[in-house]
Write the structure tokens for this entry.
Amino acid sequence: NAGVTQTPKFQVLKTGQSMTLQCAQDMNHNSMYWYRQDPGMGLRLIYYSASEGTTDKGEVPNGYNVSRLNKREFSLRLESAAPSQTSVYFCASSDSRDRGREQYFGPGTRLTVT
Amino acid sequence: DAKTTQPPSMDCAEGRAANLPCNHSTISGNEYVYWYRQIHSQGPQYIIHGLKNNETNEMASLIITEDRKSSTLILPHATLRDTAVYYCIVRVADSGGGADGLTFGKGTHLIIQP
């Protein structure tokens, strides 16, 4: 069991470039999440997906789009990167049917926009 | 979700019990207390959660006051590997089967001293 995997681990973009962050989980979870973490801060929710085919905005969705490709994969796209999007991005998954609904996190993608 | 208040940092000697406090005075009756931790540069890791009874698992114990306005996470025999940022989060007990994100504050930076 790999758990939650994210690619790439590191990325440097120029302002205006686009890219997609990939996330996959092998735990058969129905719910998936994207968070960002700025230096010295807690994580903030960008988007989430309760189940395959559904997505919803979180606290900070502006500048991002997501796709729940199938039950395993949930991608995050930056269409036109800005320096304010420099951050560490974490993907997570959970089984909403579990009583604890604990979330399992990936190792993160460190993104720098210059 | 209700707001939580935690001290920004704490020290603890290796081998001693680490007691991390959390205030959540506006917690609602249907909200659980969750604890996650984040070891440097890694994704957050679930520790434990509870509603009103004290809980214990292989990682930690959670003590919730009778009025549920505060709680304490206890790491019984802290090791150097327990150095991390610890987040106390309150969250509704039932998401209705849908996804719901976690609301992270800045947490407590616990430093275990050799």
Notes: The interface with chain A takes residues 34, 41-46, 49, 87, 95, 97-107 of chain B (CB under 8 Å). Chain B has no helices and nine strands.
